[in-house]
Amino acid sequence: MHRLRTTVARLRPITATQTAKSQSQARPAAVGGALRTYEPMRSYAASVSAKPFLSGTSSNYVEEMYYAWLENPSSVHKSWDIFFRNANAGAPPGAAYQSPPPLGGAALGLANAQAMVGAQPNMEKLVEDHLAVQSLVRSYQVRGHHIAKLDPLDISVIDFDEAPVMLGLKKVGFYGLDESDLDKVFRLPTTTFIGGSESALPLREIISRLEMAYCQSIGVEFMFINDMEQCQWIRQRFERPGVMQFTLEEKRTLLTRMVRSTRFEEFLQRKWSSEKRFGLEGCESLIPALKTIIDKSSMNGVESIIMGMPHRGRLNVLANVIRKELDQIFCQFDSKLEAADEGSGDVKYHLGMWHRRINRVTDRNITLSLMANPSHLEAVDPVVQGKTKAEQFYSGDTEGKRVMSILLHGDAAFAGQGVVYETFHLSDLPSYTTHGTVHVVVNNQIGFTTDPRVARSSSYPTDVAKVVNAPIFHVNADDPEAVMYVCNVAAEWRATFHKDVVVDLVCYRRNGHNEMDEPMFTQPLMYKQIKKQKGVLQKYSEKLLAEGAVTRQDYEEEIAKYDKICEEAHARSKDEKILHIKHWLDSPWPGFFNVDGQPKSMTSLSTGLPEEELGHIGHIASSVPVEDFTIHGGLSRILKGRAVMVGQRVCDWALGEYMAFGSLLKEGTHIRLSGQDVERGTFSHRHHVLHDQNVDKRICIPMNHISPNQAPYTVCNSSLSEYGVLGFELGFAMASPNALVLWEAQFGDFHNTAQCIIDQFICPGQAKWVRQNGIVLLLPHGMEGMGPEHSSARPERFLQMCNEDPDAYPKFSAEEFAVRQLYDCNWIIVNCSTPANYFHVLRRQILQPFRKPLIVFTPKSLLRHPEAKSSFDDMLPGTHFQRLIPDSGPVCEKPEGVKRIVFCTGKVYYELTRERNNRGMDDTVAIARIEQLSPFPFDQVKVETHRYPNADLVWCQEEHKNQGYYDYVKPRLRTTVDCTRPVWYAGRGPAAAPATGNKAAHLVELQHFLDTAFNLDAFTFIP
Questions:
Q1: Measuring CA to CA, which residue among 745, 604, 607 is closest to residue 669?
Q2: Are 261 and 280 in contact (CB under 8 A)?
Q3: What is the domain partition of the chain in residue ranges?
Q4: Nearest to 900 by CA among 919, 876, 875
Q5: How far apart are CA 957 and CA 970, in angstroms?
Q6: Which helix (H) or strand (E) holds 48?
Q7: CA-based torsion, 487, 491, 494, 499: positive or negative
Q8: Assigned fold of 888-1014
């Protein structure tokens, strides 16, 4: 209760959190009978709170003071002591106040206090006036931004959907004050810093200073933050008199940056007036804003900054923030430029850049990385956060002091895209936090052509940031000094509290959505105003000229200097005939692709392990390597079952995964597995994190006990997000090729809500941005008769996006066939049917000499299927991933007598073998499993078809005909056999839903396609 030791003239507002806390605490028995007065006190509190000047907070405050008085009367000021004694004695509401003792006077003794009990109040207005001033201060802090001068166009249409804001000299009556009080001196509450070194000010001056702090070019939203220290920190930076002052050198630097930002756009407009470039006109102050954040962060020790942004202003940021060579930017406008690198490339305003340079303000090295990204707005947000987290992890930066992220947003997308919320929601999660991001919103006050009034339900586009208590600094982008100050504060906030912060640059878009668009169609009034609007550079230069900070000659020389730089770069750009996209790489992996200056070998390596290593990892997987650790009884049975398997030299799916992970960790490869409930596993099969049944939050991760010098294993349950979390893991995987990063969907079809990351980043990432990535997607898949949801991971979607030609047989040597195929593909798609093959494909992902995304359709029922087990023999040195598993049964004895070969993939293999055994057709029907679907194993399929020259070819799948693998596999099978033999289909017919919701119907469908697969007369070839 030490916070309550205060005078009436220094009343502090009590936050909702503090009130709830105080109300939830049991009162000590020592106050005894005094508690009988609590209910009367509610009426007192209600009578006080009914007064308009207290804005509904005083009721809680009076109750809090009352509790403090009950516990210790001397803990409150004597005036409150008298008030509560009067109230306890039955004084009516409004008659219990007494005048406080004179400031500096002698302490009021208990006898004097008692003598005053029952006396009629004669200073009630004084008390009320001080409370009114407290409420007035708070109103400016809460709502001052409502009347701040934020819009450069002065046409803001923000509707706060509230009563008129009662702020200003003429509104003091709302607080119980009148004009005669304006020149009275009031002591300032401790919740404001407007007085500087002064503790009391006239009311007129109080209001003037509050308006200077909260109602000019900066609007601050922070009073929703429930941390008093953070609120006070912000108040200090905006309320102290004279805080927003700059030196002559700072003003000149700011002008120089404004010149570069503005003249860059004007240069592009002159040279390529008919080209789309998504220029920055109307928000040229973004460039000095970003450079200010970078400068301040560098001063605070940051060495690496990862940035993400939409297309508007990207070229300017590349040129003037990242410092990309101008000639490299200008040459991109040449339509005759030839691509030197593989892949499709991307448009210039989607490309990224990585650059390490000296920060001229701090003279320290800093690495700047602007991530490449598509037009899908905000999709890059979680990717940036993941890469930032990875860099922090690999550099041991556990507090985010050396590596940080900056995210740029558009106003419409910030409010409209759900991934923004998903990304914010990761900001404080232990395995995902990047210890604070600076968000900069380029607030055009318009979408493409959509007015904010129909584009969002919130007053500001930035309201989503309140979900994580991030302070929001709105600033008029036509006031560069205000922008600079706000960005300094934002960077300092991030360095101090390591939490997110938002800078809302309220600006306008001088042109349409792009330079070819006509905005007058839809926003005629706005664009009439914009046409009359002076540019921000012109306004700021006039200001500095008037101040005498610069001369006209200095200003014109600065412009001429940068124009010359642009012209010279333009001349050099004409010599560029070839575009090297690798120069735009945003995530380089130095030293990975070469060994001693030579490219890595393209031959297959064994991914097997020695028997003793398998046994050692199996022992760890079946034990609890921590003493006095109590695990669940059911888990004890699972671990004992693992121990039995190890003794029998076999493994199931979970143990095969354990073997792969454990061996890679032992070899120094960091592994990160995340997703919803991955620690235990959706199907309760994994159990990589053990929980002590007697000690809360005590856990054990056996995988981190495999070897003394092993790499760390990170396994973390994610928030219930797919889009945000998959983007985060993709970004994490970008940072280093020497890590196995896996994202597991709770069910395979959950990737639907992360489709943007898959379609725009994972599938075409290398083709567009020459950026390899080894992320692994684990997608549980299989028809178990449980309904249409969570049955299918939609393999047809992934297969459709493969870049392999189905009509061309690859021309590689036999030794390099498998590896060359992998090198040329855009991603790898597998559906393993054995734990050993799953083990090998995970190890291959790291041991191969390049990185490709890996899509694994993982099983559900096979996790515990008695036949879905692998011998250690299949995992020993010399073994490797089998792209195709041929039939090894009786059909091998007389292959010429085999009448049918059934190709399949995944779980359906076990249903086929069971049906074949039941029908006694083990010697007439061969079953081959295609484990790697993409790239397609043409060479091995060819071997199988030649082995059975008299057999017809059938593709069998449990998925519907228009889904699954059929449309992908059929043309490739035909290419393999040169169309000399037809390829038949056995499976479910076409359907809109992935599966039936009726178990009986599921079984009927299953039996039907099994009958088709084994009815040798089902297909009649018609020439």
A1: 607
A2: yes
A3: 2-122, 127-239, 248-584, 611-781+831-875, 888-1014
A4: 919
A5: 12
A6: helix 38-49
A7: positive
A8: Rossmann fold (3.40.50)
- State the angle between helix axes of 58-71 and 78-88 in degrees (0 to 180), rounded to the nearest 10: 90
Tokens of 498: 């390591």
- 854 strand-pairing partners: 776, 828
Phi and psi angles of residue 841, each rounded to the nearest 5 degrees, phi first = -70, -30
Task: Specify the DSSP element, H or E, that contains 238.
Answer: helix 228-239
> Could you report the per-residue pLDDT of 534-578, keeping only the tens digit for each?
999 999 999 999 999 999 999 999 999 999 999 999 998 888 776
Largest CA distance in the chain: 118
Residue 354 backbone phi and psi in degrees, to 5 = -125, 130
pTM over 0.90: no
248-584 and 888-1014: identical CATH topology? yes
CB 731 within 8 A of CB 757: no
The reply to whether omega before 737 is within 30° of 0 (cis) is no
H, E, C per residue of 713-767: EEEEECCCCCHHHHHHHHHHHHHCCCEEEEEECCCHHHHHHHHHHHHHHHCCHHH
Contact 120, 86 (CB under 8 A): no
Give the tokens for residue 42. 């509610």
Cβ partners under 8 Å of residue 8, min gap 6: 77, 79, 80, 100, 127, 130
CA distance 382 to 297: 21
DSSP state of 968: H
CATH class (in words) of the domain with range 248-584? alpha beta
Q: Which amino acid is at 139?
A: S
Instruction: Name the H helices within 314-379.
Output: 314-320, 326-330
Contacts of 829 (CB under 8 A, 6+ apart): 795, 798, 799, 802, 855, 857, 932, 933, 934
**Token pair 């009311």: residue:** 203
Which residue is listed with tokens 């549980």?
Answer: 780
In 813-924, the DSSP E strands lie at 828-830, 854-858, 870-871, 884-885, 900-904
User: Would you tell me how many other CB atoms lie within 10 Å of the CB of residue 679?
Assistant: 18
Yes or no: domain 611-781+831-875 corresponds to CATH 3.40.50.12470: yes
What CA–CA distance (Å, rounded) separates 399 from 453? 40
What is the pLDDT confidence band of residue 116, given thresholds at 50, 70 and 90?
Answer: very low
Q: Report the distance separating Cα 1017 and Cα 488, nearest Å.
A: 79
- The per-residue b/e assignment along 760-778, b for 16 or more CB within 10 angstroms, e otherwise, is bbbbbbbbbbbbbbbbbbb
Residue at 760: amino acid letter: Q
pLDDT in the model for residue 10? 35
Measured from the Cβ of residue 941, the count of other Cβ atoms closer than 10 Å reads 23
Cβ-count burial 731-743 (b if 16+ within 10 Å, e if not): bbbbbbbebbbbb
Whose structure tokens read 């540019």? Answer: 535
Report whether pLDDT(330) > 60.
Answer: yes
